[in-house]
Amino acid sequence: MKLHQKDSVVVALAPIPKNTTLMVDQQTVTTLVNVPQGHKIAVFDLKKDTNVIKYGYPIGHVTQDIQAGEWLHTHNMKTNLSGELAYHYQPDVHPVDYPLENRTFQGYIRKNGKVGIRNDLLIVPTVGCVNGVAELIVKKFKAKHPDLGNFDHVTILKHPYGCSQLGKDHQQTRTVLADAVHHPNAGGVLVFGLGCENNTVSEFKKVLGHYEEERVKFLGGTRGDR
After folding, report:
1. Where would I find the SAF domain in this sequence (predicted)?
2. Where would you tag: which of 8, 75, 131, 183 has the fewest CB atoms within 10 A of its CB?
3. Does the domain at residues 9-79 carry the CATH identifier 3.40.50.720?
4. What is the pTM of this model?
């Protein structure tokens, strides 16, 4: 990757073997040695003491003559800094104006006006005790609907909470789960409870507030808890 048009180096996004030919600015550069991931490669020849340019600015200088395709690191580079220097922050800012009209993306508009970028089926256990049962439900659903129907993914929001919690700790669990239920990426939600937990389905509904009945369904718990 070349980070700036003025750069004299590119960065290896993955380990690059020796004799690999790279295309940089419509010219080829062949690596002379194996280059580790995240390290620099010279894109043209550099004479000794020449500055190395990265991000458009000098980051040091070479301590020997360098050929294009050579690995640049501490063995052949040195910082330009010495002693204590006064630093002045001078950002080179170029504002970019993006037109706001006619800007669209593929998404899913929910009835409350929110928009999701996915259409997932979300299983939300009210308590960690039912995580295993939720997995069985998903397994049977996928066996019956291998194409997942209209959904992109089926996801269980597994967690170890919802039972024997008190105060703010318990409230935080219910708030996070409620936010997941209301998330616009969830095209369908199954809230799944046991019945003996602190965070019963009926108590969770109080935190959940208004919800779309055709999108959010509830399962589990005792008869009086539903």
Report:
1. 7-78
2. 75
3. no
4. 0.54
